[in-house]
């Protein structure tokens, strides 16, 4: 299994540009989520999904959209990039949303907005 | 969402045990306690989790207080590779399925 994969690894955007961060998992996990981690800080939850077709907001959803059309993929869209969105973005998945299952994290996408 | 409190940083000597504390005084009866760690420039990785009883796995042990208002992650013999940020997380209240990370404890292991 490849686990959780994220593309791209690095990205530089200009203010106002849009882009999609890709996340895929091959473990047939129902639960997927997106986090951002600013320098020296902990992770903050952006959006999450408990299954295909179902998404919900986390702590910091503004400026981001998600959709979940398949079990495997959970892309994160930046609508109009701002310098405040400069961060490292992690995608994670777990078997389902139950309290007892651990999450598996991807390697991250480092995004810089100039 | 219930909140956790951890020390910002801790130090340990190599090959000695490490006890990483976490306070979660507002934990609810159905919240699981999860621990993750994040090595430099990597995504977080799962360490251990539990509900009421102490738990052991190949990486660590989790000791949960009887009233569940605190827990301790125990690394039995710290190695240099254990230097990381350790996060204590309460998992799942009211079916919201949110993992909320705090700022964690940065563990430094001295050779």
Chain pair sharing the greatest interface: A-B, 26 and 25 residues
Total beta-strand segments of chain A:
11
Order of helices and strands of chain B: EEEEEEEEE
Q: Average pLDDT value of chain B? A: 91
Helix content of chain B: under 10%
Which structural class fits the helix and strand makeup of chain B? mainly beta
Helix content of chain A: under 10%
Portion of residues in beta strands of chain B equals over 45%
Report the portion of residues of chain A in β strands.
over 45%
- What structural class results from the helix and strand content of chain A? mainly beta
**Spatial order of the strands in the main sheet of chain B?**
1-9-8-3-4
Distance between the termini of chain A: 36 Å
Question: Which runs of chain B of at least 5 residues are low in confidence (pLDDT < 50)?
Answer: none
Main β sheet profile of chain B: 5 strands, mixed
Count of alpha and pi helical runs of chain A: 0
**H and E order of chain A:** EEEEEEEEEEE
User: Shape of chain A, please?
Assistant: globular
Q: What Rg of chain B do the Cα atoms give?
A: 13 Å
Molecular shape of chain B? globular
Name the assembly state. heterodimer
The largest β sheet of chain A comes out as: 7 strands, mixed
């Amino acid at each position: 299994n490849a686990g959780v994969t994220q593309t791209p690894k690095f990205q530089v955007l200009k203010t106002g540009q849009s882009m999609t961060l890709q996340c895929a998992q091959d473990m047939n996990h129902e639960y997927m989520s997106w986090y951002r981690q600013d320098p020296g800080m902990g992770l903050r939850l952006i959006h999450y999904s408990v299954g295909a077709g179902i998404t919900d907001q986390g702590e910091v959803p503004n400026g981001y959209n998600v959709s979940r059309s398949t079990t495997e993929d959970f892309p994160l869209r930046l609508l109009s990039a701002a310098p405040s969105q400069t961060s490292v973005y992690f995608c994670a998945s777990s078997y389902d949303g139950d309290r007892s299952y651990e999450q598996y994290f991807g390697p991250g996408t480092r995004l810089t907005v100039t | 969402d219930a909140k956790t409190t951890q020390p910002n940083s801790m130090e340990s000597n190599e090959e000695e045990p490490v006890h990483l504390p976490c306070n979660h005084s507002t934990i609810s009866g159905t919240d699981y306690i999860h621990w993750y760690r994040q090595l430099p420039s990597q995504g977080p990785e799962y360490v251990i989790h539990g509900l009421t009883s102490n738990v052991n796995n190949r990486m660590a042990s989790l000791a949960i207080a009887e009233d569940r208002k605190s827990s301790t992650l125990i690394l039995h013999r710290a190695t240099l590779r254990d230097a990381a940020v350790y996060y204590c997380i309460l998992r799942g209240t009211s079916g919201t399925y949110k993992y909320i990370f705090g700022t964690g404890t940065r563990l430094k292991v001295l050779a």
